[in-house]
Write a structure and sequence with these properties.
The structure is a homodimer. With about 300 residues, chain A is α+β, with helices and mostly antiparallel strands. Helix content of chain A is about 30%, strand content about 25%. Chain A: Pathway: Amino-acid biosynthesis; L-histidine biosynthesis; L-histidine from 5-phospho-alpha-D-ribose 1-diphosphate: step 8/9.
Chain lengths: ~300, ~290
């Protein structure tokens, strides 16, 4: 199997309205529109599968790390892989379920897919999980989709463009400091050791700490209803799609040291875990970093 | 202001037909209450959808819970309908407290227009409108309504619970190690309650967070096995009782006693520890581990 070593370098410049330098980046707006178009088809296809299985009884296969995997998860990923193989046979794919696939020796493009982020919400009939789709170009996410197929809500973030929710442009909201912030995280149990202590420093200072949203919390942040999302142990397929969505709505998303989130996608990538902080306003972001004290 | 001292005693037998002579109302009355209950939920839902994800003023209540204009407007819309349809009934609203025209009222409507205000405020569509009708202190009608998703759970004494008109049922679950547990937040347990909750949480298959009343609705529908919470107010659990019992589940306090609140003009709004389960076996396992004596 061929491999490509592409460094994911994420666009730290949250001036999402700067036009892409097409010569520098090797693709143009027409290419990007085509990628967005196929991205929508992926989300449509995954959504069809997911709606068929949501709140129906089905087999649950326990994966080694004790996360339930459902037939819906696997079927939704297959439906997306099939569309990509038809439309972009030279692109690589990294799926949460099926790992790395690549036909070519070299490829600048990698699609990173998580068909159901928030499998436990899905399994308990709670309609706040998401299908996550990212397209990396030379390691940098240029397209990110968060899709909630039951509520029919789709956030699309595109390099150089304003993020939209169901076609409407959205924006994060202002928030000067932690004491004014509404914070989301999925669960208190996803922080261990030092991460738990660091998180608690921030959580104790925010206006309201809330739980239980998975990727949907980041979508709410991009839409301007939430100020801060802090999580630990996220896999690349769970944050890469968030980057264009959040940056394109005026927000910021990095690791806990304030560094760009960076993952090399290849046939022999370890799927490392990352600590992620996202904010709608640079001031509350800085306040969060100052309190995380993650050096 | 008149008061009525009615003891809330909850019906543990959800499939037993109402003894109409004993209870002082019949099925026609009950159908009418359900009909008006639906109108209440429709009205509150209209208001709520207007305000969801719009910017609006947030007034901080003394206990630091954000109150929204939507909350107050939705409650007013329900009170108005009740005053038109059942002027002799009493009302206890989360926002506006006790209202009663008569000296005595066998019937008390208990309303929480938005349970899960923090979810509402952050644009998360999993809050609920809660509506309960008490007859001589016993909840005979309970509604959980999610107006954005357009999902309505209706529990009626002596009848099977429905979700959007379809009958639903809890699912089987033999013990904690197989159970999916929900609670709203780890921060809502203090002192001994936190310790007791942790005993159960450490044994369940998966502990999950963040659902408010929606978790109880999911339990009634058979997708969740256990919901355990501390510090719930009566307007936040009374409506859940007919919904859960009517789907085959059980809901009590942490000692296994029936949830019991006297609604009157001078009721303290006490807080309760609540456990709900879809299966009596996992319920018993939870009680055994809560060890709340």
């Amino acid at each position: 199997m061929s491999s490509t070593n592409s460094t994911v370098s994420c666009n730290g410049n949250s001036n999402s309205n700067v036009d892409i330098q097409t010569m520098d980046l090797g693709f143009n707006h027409l290419d990007l529109d085509r990628f967005v178009d196929v991205g929508n088809k992926l989300a449509d296809a995954a959504g069809e599968v997911i709606r068929k299985y949501f709140r129906k009884s089905f087999d649950i296969l326990d994966k080694e790390d004790l996360s339930p995997v459902t037939i819906a998860d696997q079927a939704a990923e297959e439906s997306m892989v099939k569309i990509l193989e038809e439309n972009f046979p030279s692109h690589a794919i990294f799926g949460e379920e099926s790992g790395w696939r690549c036909k070519e020796n070299f490829t600048d493009y990698v699609w990173v897919l998580d068909p159901i982020d928030g499998t436990k919400s899905f399994i308990t009939g709670k309609p706040l999980f998401g299908t996550l789709i990212a397209l990396l170009h030379k390691g940098r996410p240029i397209l990110g989709i968060i899709d909630q197929p039951v509520l029919r809500e789709r956030w699309i973030g595109i390099s150089g463009r304003r993020t939209t929710l169901n076609g409407q442009e959205i924006s994060t909201r202002s928030c000067p400091q932690l004491s004014k912030a509404y914070l989301y995280t999925t669960s208190p149990h996803l922080f261990s050791g030092d991460a738990e202590v660091a998180f608690a420093r921030v959580r104790n200072k925010v206006k309201v700490p809330l739980y239980g949203c998975d990727c949907y919390a980041y979508a709410l942040l991009a839409s301007g209803y939430v100020d801060l999302v802090i999580e630990s142990g996220l896999k690349p397929y769970d944050f890469l799609s968030l980057i264009p969505v959040i940056e394109g709505s005026g927000g910021v998303i990095t690791d806990w040291r304030g560094h760009q989130l960076h993952w090399e996608a290849s046939s022999n990538s370890d799927v490392a875990s990352f600590n992620v902080v996202a904010a709608g306003d640079k001031r509350v972001y800085q306040d969060a970093l100052d309190n995380l004290q993650w050096y």
